[in-house]
Amino acid sequence: MFIRFKKIIQTGVFHKTDDIAKYEFKNTVVFYGENTQGKTTFKDIFNSLALDDPSQITVRKSIPAMDRTLQEVVLCYKKNTCEEMEYKFANDKWSSSDLKGRVLVFDNDFIHRNLITGFEITRANKESYTDFILGEGGVSISENIRVLNEQLTVLKSKIIIPGSLNKNSTADEINQFINMQVNESLEELKESIKLKENELSHLNNQAKISALPETSVPVFDLEEKIKDVVEKMNLEFIKNYKDVTKETLNFITDHFDKCITNKEPHQWVKTGLLLKKNDHCPFCGQNISELASKLIDMYHSYFNNNYESYTKDISSKLSSVEAMIDKLNVSATRSFIEAELHFNKYKEYNPTLEFVSDIVQLKISEDELNSNLEEWKIYVKNAIIQKNKEPHVASSDITLSEKLSLSLSAFLDMFKAQCLILDNLISKANKFKEDITKLTPDEVKTKVATVGKDIEILKRKKDRIDHNRDCEIRIAQQEEIKTLENRIATEKINLETEQSEYICKYYDELNKQYSSLGSGEFELKSSTHNRGNKKVYEFNISYKDIDIPNGQIHKLLSESDKRSLAFSIFLTKLQSLAEKDKYIVVLDDPVVSFDDHRIRITVDIIKSLVDDFKQIIVFTHYPYFIKRLLNYKVNAAYFELSKNNITCTYNNLKVDKFTKSDQELAFDKIYRFIKQEHDEDISQDLRVYLENYLKIIFQNNILENNISVSSLHSLIIGLYNHQLISKDIHDKLNSYRESLNHEHHAFSGKNIQDTRIYANNLLNTLRRINGQNI
Question: Which end of the chain has fewer CB atoms surrounding its CB within 10 Å, N or C?
Answer without folding.
Answer: C
